[in-house]
UniProtKB/TrEMBL annotation:
Listed Pfam families: FAD-depend_C (PF21688)
Protein name, UniProt field: FAD-dependent oxidoreductase
InterPro entries to which the protein is assigned, alphabetical: FAD-binding_protein, FAD-depend_C, FAD/NAD-bd_sf
Database matches in SUPFAM superfamilies: FAD/NAD(P)-binding domain
Domain FAD-dependent protein C-terminal: 297-501
């Protein structure tokens, strides 16, 4: 079997109904006959929209040829058009060592991507992990989330941030990442085997969609249980006990059917803490346990909404609407003269602005899409980086306090009913003296209906956002318009506040843990422990002692991931380290 990469593919040829055309393009590109190819499938398919008058796909194919001689001639070939052919190395499946830890069942706290993948790999090895998840199973959780969206009460234990599947369950399910780690391929295959659409294995920018993710998560839970693991919902981690530098127990409480909670203590030799970035009570507990934490960079801002058609046109020109393309996305960043960075994040084509609060008295937004991405609006976070000077005092949890202040301000501004404060771009800029209001109204023909399900309250966001955020957005929005025409349209909608895009704190791993985790691979963006622990211990904004043995802070909340893919990879990596520690 061979693999050819970098093949130019017209849009039509990527349609499932035009498989013959794709085969013809491949044969033509390789200088062989159509009939020489006996089977093929895509192994990568990325849109190239750099030139709007030539939007096309760049494809990689895995294929077979009938003739041995042709195969020999093609293997290793490089064409003038930069097509490369090599022998295909098939994926052999995720391999994990055998569990040699006997009855030392590892405990995994949290069932977001980090905890889910850690538990999945531990269960596959035979470790029979016990998963403690504070929220509900995904079906009950969906009912809680929908009830909140429709005006019901917020369940602080089970919502868009908390519950089976974690924060990414009600998301676009984008699986793109900046990390380069061989486990990314494993994550895609594990997701696909659990029912995610097969295209995630070859799409340049794979995404699952909230509607499909729900079932994928359920299937992975069933696998964990089938392999001997145990999953406890409504089980909240509330502390841990150490002896001689090792973790020996976790404390928690289990929700009962009548709503009361029953305390428990579980003996433990290995604990994966994968609690996500919204478990602020856990951050307090880790700090109170005296473990080393440090501030880490994060960002805050708002969501911006445009009609999806505007984004399609801006990105794909006349090709917009072609059935092979689907809804267009974007990703932009600017560095401002005031030294701030403003960037778009977690763009959800054809999506919805999600009611993402997890604390009573706070409003939080984020974005989600269904797999089809066929909603009327595109939305993305518009984020401004937070610097140390924006935080009050030296407290390691000062970032959490800033997030909470913004969430409370948003709640109050929108009438204390969990509606979200929103403003049209034209008004946002005008009230800061940046646009002339009547001119901007005259110019715009856009109609943008906000998608935040609980409804929005039209307010002046300049009065809600911290001044450094509002000022940076004023400067950045017109600059983004230079890249996506219509981005700064006066009728585009800003909805606040987006505060949970990443964790403002890191739970510093000790040297031994990090060596075990990072020895095999290099992960860009994740600093190696020595450096990390050393820097944190010396920092004014870090507190505590390095982590004790057997305790593995993991995923986004612990500060080692940003997004579904990197959290899942971190989960696998931690599981592997635990398994290896018994070999
Ligand atoms: P989380 O997913 O936050 O999971 C933590 C889990 O721990 C939760 O299930 C929580 O209930 C549980 N927990 C917390 N405290 C306790 C406790 N005390 N005891 C027991 N359990 C506890 N990322 C992407 O890459 N692509 C996207 O398209 C995308 N869209 C998103 C859309 C939305 C609406 C949101 C909110 C996030 C989105 N993200 C997206 C971010 C992504 O979800 C996170 O980066 C990822 O989920 C982090 O994984 P995690 O496992 O580290 O933490």
């Amino acid at each position: 079997m061979l693999e050819a990469s970098n093949v130019y593919l017209p849009l039509d040829a990527a349609l499932p109904s035009c498989a013959g055309m794709a085969q013809a393009e491949l044969a033509h590109a390789l200088g062989i006959r159509y009939a020489d190819i006996t089977s093929w499938k895509f192994s990568k398919l990325s849109v190239d929209a750099r030139r709007k008058n030539d939007v096309h796909f760049t494809a990689s194919f895995v294929f077979e040829v009938a003739d041995q001689e042709i195969e020999e001639a093609l293997a290793g070939k490089r064409t003038k058009t930069k097509i490369q052919v090599k022998r295909h190395v098939p994926y052999e499946g995720y391999r994990v060592g055998e569990w040699l830890g006997g009855d030392a069942h590892p405990i995994v706290v949290g069932m977001g991507p980090a905890g889910l993948f850690a538990a999945w790999a531990l269960a596959k090895s035979g470790a029979a992990p016990i998963v403690l998840e504070r929220g509900e199973d995904v079906d009950a959780r969906m009912a809680s989330v929908n009830s909140f969206k429709e005006g019901g009460a917020l369940n602080p234990e089970s919502n868009v941030q908390f519950g089976e599947g974690g924060a990414g369950t009600f998301s676009d399910g984008k699986l793109t990442t900046n990390i380069k780690n061989p486990r990314c391929r494993d994550v895609l295959h594990i997701f696909a085997q659990a029912g995610a659409p097969e295209e995630i294995l070859w799409e340049g920018k794979p995404h699952i969609g909230t509607d499909k993710l729900v079932n994928v998560v359920k299937t992975m839970r069933e696998q964990i249980i089938a392999w001997g693991g145990e999953v406890r919902f409504g089980a909240r981690f509330e502390g841990m006990e150490f002896e001689d530098g090792r973790i020996v127990a976790v404390r928690g409480s289990q929700r009962q059917e009548d709503g009361t909670r029953e305390k428990f203590v579980l003996p433990a030799s290995d604990v994966v803490l994968a609690c996500g970035h919204s478990a602020r009570d856990v951050f307090d507990r880790v700090r109170n346990a005296g473990l080393l934490m440090e501030r880490k960079p994060f960002a805050v801002g708002v969501r911006i909404e445009h009609p999806q058609k505007l984004i399609d046109k801006a990105q794909y020109g006349n090709a917009a609407g072609h059935p092979a393309l689907g809804a267009a996305d974007y990703k932009m960043a600017v560095h401002l003269r005031n030294d701030r960075s403003v960037y778009t994040f977690c763009m959800c084509p054809g999506g919805e602005v999600m009611c993402s609060a997890s604390e009573l008295g706070g409003v939080v937004v984020n974005g989600a899409s269904r797999h089809a991405r066929n909603g009327r609006n595109a939305n993305a976070a518009l984020l401004v980086n937070v610097e140390d000077r924006d935080l009050r005092g030296d407290d390691v949890l000062a970032g959490v306090k800033l997030q909470r202040r913004m969430e409370t301000a948003a709640y109050r501004a929108a009438g204390e009913s969990y509606k979200a404060p929103a403003q049209r771009v034209g008004d946002f800029m005008a009230s800061a003296g940046k646009f002339n209001r009547s001119q901007s109204e005259h110019r715009s023909r856009l109609e943008v209906e906000p998608t935040y399900a609980r409804g929005v309250e039209w307010v002046d966001l300049n009065q809600v956002l911290p001044p450094f955020v509002a000022r940076s957005l004023h400067a950045a929005i017109p600059l983004f318009n230079g890249r996506i025409r219509g981005f700064s349209d006066p009728n585009a909608v800003l909805t606040g506040v987006e505060t949970r895009s990443s964790s403002p704190v890191r739970i510093v791993r000790d040297k031994a843990t990090c060596q075990a985790l990072f020895s095999q691979t290099t992960d860009c963006g994740l600093k190696i422990a020595d450096e990390l622990a050393g820097a944190a211990a010396a920092s004014r904004t870090a507190e505590g002692e390095p982590i004790a043995g057997g305790f593995y802070p993991c995923g986004e909340g612990a500060g080692y991931a940003g997004g579904i893919m990197s959290a899942a990879v971190d989960g696998l990596r931690v599981a592997e380290a635990i398994i290896a520690s018994y070999e």
